[in-house]
Amino acid sequence: MTITGMVRRSLVSAWAGAAFLLLPAGAEAAPVGVEAVTAYVLDHSEVRTMHAAAGDSYRIYVQRPATPPPPGGYPILYLLDGDQSFPVAAAIAGQFGPYLGLEPGVIVAIGYGGPSRRVADYTPPVPIEARLDKSLPRSGGADRLLAFIADELRPAVERDLPVDPDRRTIAGYSLGGLFVLHAFFARPQLFHSYVASSPSIWLVRDHLFRAADASAQRRPAFARRRLLLSAGQWEETPDPGASAADHERLAQAHMIGNARNLSRRLATLPGLTVRFDIVPGETHASGSLPSIRAALVEAFSPRPAP
Prior knowledge:
Elements: H1 3-21, E1 45-51, E2 57-63, E3 74-79, H2 82-96, E4 106-111, H3 118-122, H4 142-158, E5 163-173, H5 175-186, E6 193-197, H6 205-214, E7 226-232, H7 244-253, H8 255-266, E8 273-279, H9 288-300
Parallel strand pairs: 3-4, 3-5, 5-6, 6-7, 7-8
Antiparallel strand pairs: 1-2, 2-4
């Protein structure tokens, strides 16, 4: 199995577990006497379908705060893998945000509402000979998705919402993290914070490293920006009981080393805040859940007064 197949299978298991956690107790067998069953609806949320100018359709999930906006506008978080990440993020922000010290903010999650196109949408347009895994199906559409976010989605969502332009965050996990890094290098002024959790740097490693080295020539573009990279503790050194095949795949992906290396290459850029974290106890399959909390903390933590 290719690294991509391993990652895809792991994420399916992780997201399935996350979805199970959202089910109310006893949902598998309705008690006798129930007259009607209705869908569970998250408060202050909405779902819309957007048709991009390029021809693609997306399912967009939005959660709005119940409280009035602050004078500068709401902070806003854009999330990838929205079909799976939105209910988790919305529940954490809505129910546990105050306990985490978070301010009210807008969550916008980008999904499909059908078959996923994440491989096509989240991968940079890198020639196949420059990719570590050459078996990927249709890929290389990251610029197309980025243009949709910048030119269509963001204006549509923020048209009717007071948003703080200096508090826009984008976050993604795995291939979504790779897309966040591509967005960071391609359009660093589009967001204030970029959260790339367990990014699949291995897929186009040299392409991203060259982009990091070339960023020194574009220093002003990265000023006052934040880049947060992370990887799980067991994403490179397998946990006990891992098979020989797991060892080989993890060594090839080099998840921790690549993310750490990229952060070090960028650390000298003046005005850029870059941080690399190792998330204790997490594998690639389990790390998607703490990555959502990390994105919320980055997006909605109070800012110090100027």
